[in-house]
Amino acid sequence: MLHLCPNPATFRAPAMYRTHSCHQLRPADIGQSVTLAGWVNTNRDQGGVIFVDLRDREGVTQIVFRSEENADATVHAHKLRSEDVIQITGKVAARLPGTENAKLATGAIEIIATDLKVLNKADVPPFPLDDPKVNEDLRLEYRYLDLRTDHMQRNLKLRHRIVKATRDYLDDAGFLEIETPVLSNPTPEGARDFLVPSRLNPGTFYALPQAPQQYKQLLQVAGLEKYFQIARCFRDEDLRADRQPEFTQIDVEASFITDVEIQTLIEGMLKRIFKEARGVDIPTPFPRMTYADAMNRFGSDKPDLRFGLELVDLADIFKESGFKVFRSVADSGGVIKALNAKGAAALLSKEQLKKWEEWVKTEFGAKGLAYIKWSEGGEWESPIVKFFSDAEKKALAERMGFAAGDVLFFGADMKLEAVAEVLGRVRLRCADILGLLAAKKDELNFLWVVDFPLLAFSPEDNHWVAVHHPFTRPKAEDMPALEAGEYAKVRAVAYDVVLNGVELGGGSIRIHEKDLQTKMFEVLGVGPEEQQLKFAHLLRAFSFGAPPHGGIALGLDRLVMLAVGAESIREVIAFPKNNRGCDLMTHSPVEVDFKQLREVYISSTAKKN
Amino acid sequence: MLHLCPNPATFRAPAMYRTHSCHQLRPADIGQSVTLAGWVNTNRDQGGVIFVDLRDREGVTQIVFRSEENADATVHAHKLRSEDVIQITGKVAARLPGTENAKLATGAIEIIATDLKVLNKADVPPFPLDDPKVNEDLRLEYRYLDLRTDHMQRNLKLRHRIVKATRDYLDDAGFLEIETPVLSNPTPEGARDFLVPSRLNPGTFYALPQAPQQYKQLLQVAGLEKYFQIARCFRDEDLRADRQPEFTQIDVEASFITDVEIQTLIEGMLKRIFKEARGVDIPTPFPRMTYADAMNRFGSDKPDLRFGLELVDLADIFKESGFKVFRSVADSGGVIKALNAKGAAALLSKEQLKKWEEWVKTEFGAKGLAYIKWSEGGEWESPIVKFFSDAEKKALAERMGFAAGDVLFFGADMKLEAVAEVLGRVRLRCADILGLLAAKKDELNFLWVVDFPLLAFSPEDNHWVAVHHPFTRPKAEDMPALEAGEYAKVRAVAYDVVLNGVELGGGSIRIHEKDLQTKMFEVLGVGPEEQQLKFAHLLRAFSFGAPPHGGIALGLDRLVMLAVGAESIREVIAFPKNNRGCDLMTHSPVEVDFKQLREVYISSTAKKN
Predict the structure, then answer these.
(1) Which of A198, A560, B67, B255 has a CA-to-CA distance to A167 between 20 and 30 Å?
(2) Which of A245, A293, A545 is closest, CB to CB, to B120?
(3) What class has domain B27-120?
(4) Which family would the database say this protein is a member of (chains A, B) (predicted)?
């Protein structure tokens, strides 16, 4: 027999830190002896009696120090400062009648402290924790303090709950979470990759994955059938607005599955997530809208359907117009659309309309923004209306339901996408100033956008590129068009899920046949040599019994942001980077010794300051 | 009102791929019309009737094609090859009496196929999927085929179940999973980092985390109290044996917690994991052993306690020995130990003992391996015994329980660690040849090793280094020794959890006081400037109310390997790299265009072949 230290209890530390959390005690516990630990939220002296609000992750409890109980502790309690870390022991007591705090779960009781232990002192924080107006850079530099706020604690707790609900749901549905490599290969035709030099293979590089796309497809070839992963992904993009160089996605792929089955699966998942995060039951199935409809009616492939403000076709009205711009577009089969911002006339002065015009010019490179404003009791004000015939005006007013108080905005271009780009954004701005968004702040409007185009012609590259990615499946009924080279007509079995005008995620049924995949590469101008170099393993895998498969990926950070009602993804990420990719708390990234670089066979070409 | 495509059902694909899995149908389903999809496992022609074993992720079902039902399908079924992907429709029928397959869950039924659809043809695989002797490089190159084997499917399913059980358990215990950055800072005093050049910050680099150590401590300062993460970690080491450049760890950290509370938490977690993976109830609490005991008695800080073969102290016996090596060590307060390999004499020839000696010389740089072999009916055979006095021999035999048939192995050195290194490994080899390991193959022997030394003197660096890491807390009772500069005497509040001689993980209670952390840096030779450069944010965080905290990390890959009974971590990782850090399937890492390097301000210094 081996002789071991017989009783683990002999290793027990002399004390435990607490018997209860600061959210736990209730009148039923009165009389009990308890130990609590946490941070000093506030302390105040009322005639020699010290009241400390003690805070931990779960809540707040009022602690009372009186000289009768412990004179020494009371003296020390008087000196406590906010954010000091303490441990107290005492008896649970009822608060004096009239001093209960109904807002606090523990508000009916207090602890009469008999003992105080200061575990760690705190300096005065560089900013008041509960001030929402503190500069974000300062909050990011002291992120560990910022994370103590109710707001951030709530967000991170809800993020955990959402991710747990997601995993539970997918596990229930028979999906296996499988980890794929972070040290992987460059993404062909993706955004810019982050590179990692290899020390064991001089002159070569790993890339951090932009998505586990190929691995998840290979897991289908491997017969795992139902895969998911809450996967960290990376894109080295210029960080505009609300982007992060690393982000997390809910990555799902399955075999022997149809597009509608995937959509139904994801609807159920979102139902569970929003139940968990908000306690609401979102109705399913979500409505479906084709890409063509979304673009035509709302000027967006992720339309916000909480309000109308639909775009209306006008090309037929202006076929013989005196307004040359419209006539030439209408004549050549182009697109003329308008939307009616009902009741916006009083909200938009001439100066403001001028600013809107400037905005569409700089933001979208548009030539201008045609409008007609009709103030109550006034005339049509517009730089273009003088070119319209009476018949055109009548037809326009009728079709648009144009009335006094309204403003019409126009878009005209040979390409729908160009009209949609401008009017889609003008639509959102109109909704904003009309208060339509504020009125529907709490509405959750889900939508599937389907039937995306498979291919788009890229004038810069002078060839067709994949709208989604090169592995996306063409719709069966559009295969003849693909064969015939009528690429613009080919739709993909691809779908995006949209919430309140924000794209939550997208996916597609994939190509699983080697021949079709090879054909697709040819269409995309990927020659045999490049195929061999970048896709040999995938094409080879497809020749050994690849099942039909498809999937979807949802951006977790954005989903959590919307689910918890945060303003930015930085509010749902524990340690986000700023828009230069820097972590202000740890000062990452940093310079490293040239010897470290030499070890991985690279040198820096950056100019020294 | 918005007009949307009214009924999602109109988007439904024309067919679903299957109504049941290949593991699902039973005699109760006889007569039902079903559709199945999967891979052809085998097909055979019995007098014109074709029997196909159809396989999917869940199991196998026998499909029967007969000309009476569908002549055309039967002709095609005849031509099917292994790994072809098919969809079949047919009726569930009872197998003929005597042809049932009791080994198969679906073995009492078969499907009489009325329809066959070949979804994808398969080329002949480059190796037979069920041959365990296939070269690993080939299996890794065609990993998507290797993953189709029962063995790998089982491992990945169990890995998923284990990870799910871990998350469920920690969630139940109130822990929040919080993601920390992958693009982070170099690890001070760690292994070699993987570097990622920053494009937005020329000349600077991110490092991939070796562990989320500082982030998890900062989350404690942030008041999140109970954190965990199944975290991807990275180490750019030379890949010996069973290592991977990226690995996954169960990372746990909590505030207001004692070492024993953490250990109890982890015991519960392992209990749940082994219940899930093996259906066994492992007894808790685990025994505890101090580092000093483990080294003294078993020559290892992760002793395998499934067998004895303890090391025994002999220094007092050889204080005046004629054998100079022993005498001088014993005289100077050094360590002399031996272990008795009971019954090993018949298993170890003189040549084999010679080989063992060679092995300890090359592997550990030992000067030799002293032994005494006592064959049944023979004399003591040994190069050293001639120097021993009769009294020494008697004392030795008595203390070691030395008998005919046994072999004694000796170690002598001024340092315990040197003796332990050799005899610890000799002990394992003895257990192996004596069949002690084989006999206890299925035993799960868990152990906590505690009271590790805090510091070790590094002759190369000529200063003291942290045994665990610089944030580890000294034991309260050893604080006087730390103050007095008696660093060798200071023990850490650090603990490792060991299973069958394999370290599953380790952790510690951390330093949470700025002053003590600064003192520790001084002891470790980290001057004020370096502290400022590398640890400023941590030291600053400690000054704003850091709670007492501690944690642990367990290597997930190794844990899963042991739980499922795999031989290598590569068998529980979907896409592992080989021992040169290469993914043989995707040929990662790769050369990249110099323009891509220029964009991130680096150039390659590798010599071109």
Answers:
(1) B255
(2) A545
(3) mainly beta
(4) Belongs to the class-II aminoacyl-tRNA synthetase family. Type 1 subfamily.
